[in-house]
């Protein structure tokens, strides 16, 4: 059975930006694309375990603030070294004025 967790309001994230969302012991990032879709993935870089909440959204990727590794925010794929391990992504829905992720 899906476990949908309210992460934020859509207006909490500007287009082409992200926010950090913590739930229990897990850290996620929620990305709002420039075409107004929402995406969720692990919020910790797979390279050196740095929080991606201060990362940069650009060209369909999130860039790690420490060593500039990038990840596709739609698939979690590691796109640029030094990261070589993909991140998990999570289903997202916008409903009743809130962004939810399924964990």
Describe this entry's structure for a reader:
By secondary structure, the chain is mostly beta strands. The protein has one domain (4-102): Rieske [2Fe-2S] iron-sulphur domain (Rieske Iron-sulfur Protein, 3-layer Sandwich). Helix content is 0%, strand content 46%. The protein is built from no helices and 11 strands. A 4-stranded antiparallel sheet has the order 2-3-4-9, with no helix packed on it. A 4-stranded antiparallel sheet has the order 5-6-7-8, with no helix packed on it. This is Rieske 2Fe-2S domain-containing protein. One of its GO terms (molecular function) is 2 iron, 2 sulfur cluster binding. Keywords: 2Fe-2S, Iron, Iron-sulfur, Metal-binding.
In short:
The chain has 103 residues and is an all-beta fold. 0% of the residues lie in helices and 46% in strands. It has one domain: 3-layer Sandwich (Rieske Iron-sulfur Protein).
């Amino acid at each position: 059975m899906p476990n949908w967790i309210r992460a934020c309001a859509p207006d909490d994230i500007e287009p082409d930006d992200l926010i950090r969302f913590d739930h229990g012991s897990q850290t996620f990032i929620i990305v709002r694309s420039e075409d107004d879709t929402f995406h969720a993935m692990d919020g910790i870089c797979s390279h050196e375990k740095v929080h991606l909440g201060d990362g940069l959204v650009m060209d369909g990727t999130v860039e790690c603030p420490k060593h500039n590794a990038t990840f596709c925010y739609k698939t979690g794929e590691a796109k640029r070294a030094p990261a070589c391990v993909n991140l998990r992504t999570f289903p997202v829905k916008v409903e009743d004025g809130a962004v939810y992720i399924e964990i």
